[in-house]
Amino acid sequence: MKTRLLPTTAAVAAAFVPLLLATPAQATNGYFSHGFGIKAIGMGGAGIALPQDAIAAAINPAGMAMIGNRIDFGLNWFSPSREAQIVNSPVPFNGTVYEANESPNFFIPEFGYNQMLSSSMSLGISVYGNGGMNTDYDKPFPLFGSTRPGVDLSQLFIAPTLGYKITPEHAVGVSLNLAWQRFKSYGLENFTAPSGPMQFSAYPAYVTNNGYDDSYGYGLRIGYLGQLTPYLALGLTYQTKTKMTEFDDYKGLFAEQGGFDIPANYGIGIAVTPMKDLTIAFDIMRIDYSGIKSINNPLLPNLFQSPLGTDGGAGFGWQDVTAYKLGVQYAINPQLTIRGGYNYGEQPIPQSETFFNFLAPGVVEDHWTLGATWTLANKSELSFAFMYSPSVTVNGVNSIPPAFGGGDINLTMKQFTLGVAYGWKF
Fold first, then answer.
1. pLDDT (tens digit, 9 = 90+) per residue, 18-35?
2. 41 with 387: CB under 8 angstroms?
3. In the CATH scheme, what is the homologous superfamily, with its name and number, of domain 2-425?
């Protein structure tokens, strides 16, 4: 049976990947997803010490050694609401509200497969959208250009994973993260002057309106999972910075000639089972946005000292994010398990950096989640998850440079997610 399943599953995964490639992913802890796998999504994203499906490698690869033989498919509908407003500015469009919701709906699939090679070793693969950002404004923004502005960033991980049980209660794992991302920007014509005092980019032909560009790279995620007592599990996870090829068509926008590596991130989690059918999970994750110049470099004074596209070129000024994830699940009976959760991550955009982040207003902080799993008569599982992130507004403080008229931009965002997954053990 195992011999027949391996090529069949590989074929299914190969057919599944193009769906992810065509899907603009969105995210909530900065531009990372708040959770991976429908079950974890329903628990506020918590899962470092609580693997429940074959997407577990996206959180902690050691969990793959504990879940047995599984196949899982999932699909998330994601709907963000994004807007920006100019205030305190002498420009004639002061007070105008710009809505970035011309693309309101996103569908993000996921896939996982895991097979035990022996009682102690597993081999699997998890395919998932890591994160992204999309803005698609309803009208031109005169400070940026003459046409409707926006960006579209998607990131995909394909993670072959090896897990190993050191003992029946302790496991380690490693994933090779094969990463792909695509990006496009448009409506930024004011940053493309080829010469003169308003030349903001070292490569003005590579700032905007060049369609999609692709980038590839790889990194590693390692993890540990231990059942310390019958009631307490501990998990540790670390993902290296993923070095990506440059966005050559946007080398005049991003620092380091189009550099856009994926930040390192790491975390610790526990899962407590105080009674037979109740589990409480809590994770702390850290995302090192400061390690990526194109994300972390501030707008000022960089915009007027180092042209866009150079090592010191202006970026989005994002700070590191620490996310706290709390989830609870309760098995009502052998057929029905319900879940709830909360995720908090302080938004990464300082008030002084809202001008450039007109393009990337990832400012949500609180995430409330619900979920459930029904075990069907054939022992397969149907799972659901819902996430609501209420509206957050970041009010700019001296965020519009004087050369652009001065004043501020206020950014607002809220989000909804509804997901469904089907999986089974074999």
1. 555 555 555 689 999 999
2. yes
3. Outer membrane protein transport protein (OMPP1/FadL/TodX) (2.40.160.60)
